[in-house]
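Q: Here's a chain of 664 amino acids. Please give me its 3D structure as C-alpha cells.
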Amino acid sequence: LNQKGFLLLGKSETTSGVPDLYISVAKNDKLFSRKDTPNKFIQDSSHKIVHNINSEIINIKTENIRTDFQKSADEILLSKYTPAGVVVNESMDIVHFRGGTGNYLEQSPGKPTHNLLQMAKHGLSFELRNIIHKVKKEKKTILKENVPLQLNGSIHSISIEAIPLPNSIEPYFLILFHDIVKLNILEKLGKDKKSVNSKNSKDEKDLRIQQLEQELDQAREDMRSITEEQEAANEELQSANEELLSSSEELQSLNEELETNKEELQSTNEELTVVNHEIITLNGIVTEERDYSEAIVATVQTPLIVLNKNLQIKSANRAFYKTFQVNEGETEGKLIYDIGNKQWDIPALRILLEQILPEQSKILNYEVTQTFQILGERKMLLNAQEIRHVENANKLILLGIEDITEKRRSEELFKKNNEHFRNLVKNLPAAVYSCNMEGRITFYNNAAEKLWGQKPNIENDLWSGTNKIYNSNGTLISRDQVPMALSIKNDISVKNQEIIYERPDGSRVNVLSNPQPEFNLLGERVGSINILLDITDQITAHKKAIAQASMIENLLMTAPGFVCTLKGPNHVYDLINAKYQEMFGKRILKGKPILEALPELIDQEISSIIDKVYNTGVPFVGIETAINIARDENLTPELGYFNFSYQPIYDENNNIHSILVFGY
C-alpha cells in the first residue's frame, strides 16, 4: 500500500491478522490506511558468508567535525536534563528511544521485541497500559504520579507522563519517565541515618500510608474505569461476533447460491446445446409434419378450402373438387362467392364469413341449404376456423364443408317412421310411455292414460303420469326413486318391478313396470321407454285363491276325521290336523318324509299305494285297511284298522304336487 493510500475491505474481510500494518480511518465503512512501523529484524538461519566489496571503507572510522554549536548544546541539554522516554504507535510498539530508559525498560528473554508493555519492568506494565488507554480515549496529556518501582533493591517513586503527538498521520504517543524519587526520607534530605529520631520515622510511615491510600484510590478508580470499558468492549465484541456469524451465514448461503447458480448455468448451457440440436431436429420434423398435414388435407374425404383475409380461395382439397364438380383453374385465387357461376354466393355463408367469424374466430356446425345446378339441393354443415401467423398479421380461414343431405333425409324418414310407430303404439292394449333424459314425458298411448286415470302434461310431468306411486307392500315411493327415474339416472333396464298407481279418484291399480333405455339413429341415449302391464285382476284372483286356500285349510284342520297333506315325490308332511297328530302321540311328523317320520311303514303296502297315487293321479280309498303303527315315541308298532282316502292335489299347471290324506 502506498504511503498515503487507503485500503477498502469487503463486509467479510478484516485486518485482525496484521494489526501492526493498518489503522482504521472509517470503521463503519471498513476504510484503513498504512501504518509507519519500524523494521523488524529477521534472523538469517543460513551459514552463508556475505562478502562486502566495500568492507575496507566500512572499517575505516571517521570522525565528523560539527560546526553548529547550538545543535551540540541542545543535544547536551536534552541528554542530561530532559527525562527519559520513548515514542510508541497505536499498537504500543516503540518507534523511538530518548535518553536512558534502562531503569524502566529492558528486553525479556526470548524473541526480541519493541512492544512497550513487554519491555516494561515489573510493576510498570499495568500503569503504562492504563495511561496509554486514557490518552487514546481523552486525547490529552495524562500524568500518573507516585508510581512505585523496584530499583536496586529499594522502592522508588516515579511519574509517568503520556503525551499524544499532534499533526501526525497515524496516532503516536510520547511516554516520559520523570526523575526517580527515593521513598526513604533520610536519604532525600541528605541526613545521617543515626540522627533520625522516632518522630521522623513516624512521619515517614504516615507519608507512606498516605501515599499507599492515594495509590489504592487511584487503582480502584482505574479498575472501575477499566471494568466499564471492558464491559463496553465485550458488548462491542459480542455485537461484532454476531455480525460475523450473520456474515458467515450470509456468505455460506451466498456460496451455496453461487454453487447452485453455477450448476444451473452449466445445466442451462447443456440444455441450450440440447435445445439447439432439438430445434434443428424439430425444423426437420415440422417440414415433415407440414408435408404430412398437406397430404392428410388432400386425402381427407371432407371437402376443405383455405381462404385468405379477402375471402379468396388459396387452396382446396380433392374432396372439394370431386364433391362440387369444379377444378383448380376455376377455383384457386377466386373469390369464394364467384366460383361455380356464383353458386356459392349464399346469404347464410356471407353472414358466417363476414359477420359471425370475425367476432368468434371459430364456428362449428353452421347449417346452410343451397341448390346447385348439377347437384340439386344440398344441405351442408360449415365449420370455420381462423388461422393467424405469429410472424405476420395475415390470417387464413380454414373452411370445412360436410354434405349432410342424405343424413337429413334419413332423419326425416326416421321421424316419419317414428311417428308411424307412435300411432301404432297409441292404440296398443298395453300401456306405453317415454321420457327424455330429464325425466319429462315425451309420449304416452291411450292405455297409459287409462291406467293413470288422467292425461299427463307433456314436457312438464316427471317420470310418470300419476303423482302417487307405491311399492307392492304399500309404502310410498319418492318421485326420484320410481322405476323410470332409476332407469334414466343409472342407465339401466328394469324388468317387472311391481308397483301400485293411485289414480286421482283414489282407486289403485297393480302394475309391472319395465323401463328400457331409448336411443336415436346415432346411437345416442335420448331417454327411456316404459311398458306397463296391468296385473290388478291377477293380484285380485291371487288374493281370492289365498283366501279360499285358507278357508279350506281351516276346514281341514277342524275336520272330525284325521287329515294331512304329503308334499312332493318324497311325500313330506306339510299340513297336519290335531286328529292326525293324536294317532302318533308326541312323534314329530311335520317337515319330514312319511317313511322317515314313520319307518314302520317301509315294508308295508301303504308306501307303494302313496307312490302310485302321486305318479298316476288315481285316487285311492281304503276300507278297514290293516296298518301297523307305533302310537307314540319308543312304543312297539301295533295293528290297527283304518278307513281313509288318498286324493292328488294339482297346481296351476295341472301338475300333481301333493296328496291329501283324509280318514277315520
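Q: Can you summarize the key feature?
A: The first strand starts at residue 6 and ends at 8.
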